[in-house]
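Here is one chain, start to finish.
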Amino acid sequence: MSEYPTAPASPAGQPQRTDVRAALLGGRTFRSLSEQQLSPREERFERARQTLGFFLAPAVAIIFALLPTGMDRTQQLLAAVLLGVIILWICEPVPIPIGGLMGVAAVVLLGIAPASEVLAPFGSTTIFTFIGAFILAAAMLKHGIAQRLAFAVLSVPGVAKSTYRIIIAFGVITCILSAFVSNTATVAMLMPTALGILAVIGQLMQDRGVVKATFDPLRLRVGAALMLMLAYGASVGGLLTPVGSPPNLIGRGLIEEATGVRISFVQWTATVAPLCAAMFVVLALTMFLLNKPEIREIEGVGEFIHEQKAAQGKMSRAEINTLVAFALTVTLWLLPAFASLFAGPDSEVYLFLDERLDEGIVAVIGASLLFILPTNWKERKATMTWTDAAKIDWGTIILFGTGIIFGALLSATGLAETIGNSAAENLGVTNVIAITAFSAILAILISETTSNTASAAVVVPIVIPLCVAIGVDPFIPALAATFAASFGFMLPVSTPQNAIVYGSGTVPITRMVRTGFVFDVLGAILIISIVPVMVGITGVGG
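Its structure:
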């Protein structure tokens, strides 16, 4: 007998049919990350990794601090602390943000720098960009903007009649949303819709006899392709704007801190847009070549989408308010660039707007509107409450602050220059292409085993001094490392969105590893080949 839910008894002599909807939507497969249960092997691995971190991090830090390296004492102590923090980030014996805070505390206790100097980056404009953008994203998700956009795209004539077009449509939706909303939240919000459509496809395949009556609906290639498109599409779309993914803001902040040159919202988007477009095309081709859907033409999905769309009804006041706040924020972010384009970069209009419309302040203004625009004036109910806002990812904000702190300390103590000179001598990288390739590959490898935010915080501070040591402009390699930090497609632990789709039960680990490895390689090639060209065209960092 099948281990999957079965429909009512079939006629005598015939095997019971798998109940596809119960298998996919019965609550057995769609779980939040906190609800997922690890297998015994995964539990052993995680326990060993965390236990190792508890002892390895302090041991490495202490041993390196005592070694007769000949380094400046302040540099050696900072390097020892940073090594310990990196091990804490990789092994996660404590939450990643807490590992960063422990390192910050150690820096002050060891006298490497005074507390006022160390903690100054927590007041940077990018911290407020994070806070404002996260609150706006929380409002979009709370009030169902993500699902409404999904059903709007899927309702385009012809889309719902082909599994290929449905999968591509979901990729487009996740790319658009994740450019402004957390990748993880985007995937989590779209997952129920994707599973609902997959249930319709599975039922249709069963009725047509494409699969056996007792088939496993969690092992369909079309399901794996749809789920992986959600996860990978979010990572691709997250690159498009500075606020699309935490590594973007972390990398940009570190680059600006080290070079003193500002990267505007428009410069970032213009530089990365061709890379995102190329990656999406490669993603679609990779997905269909390695996970070819069992069925191409389908019927019935359109009716499902129509029913779900009708159930949403008209846009609520909260949705309209959210879109108003979001539209105003994006408009103010782009306004200085338009002023520069039409009035010139030396015009009084541009200089005025550029000085006043700081991205962090604009994000705070947009977020504040959500607490002003009412949904019920008589009851004084606003679009968002502070309880809603308090649920944003404060851990990422803390991690960003600690990453900027270590980046600033690397420069202030001279350790960055020491690392750069040593790496230049030992690695043999002597030109911009070689160091760009090194940066991208290193960031991808680290992001496969730890969070993409930690990957950016670790790799970018290494890349910048390496560039300085060999006389190369750090913008191209540092941007490449920042973009590549959002990669890591092979394993469930590589990114939260990977973990979410793996937790759905529809993506076998072998499919994720195989598809992710190919996309990692192709993505690295695209970064190495496209980023230098686009930096030259847009003049970012010039």
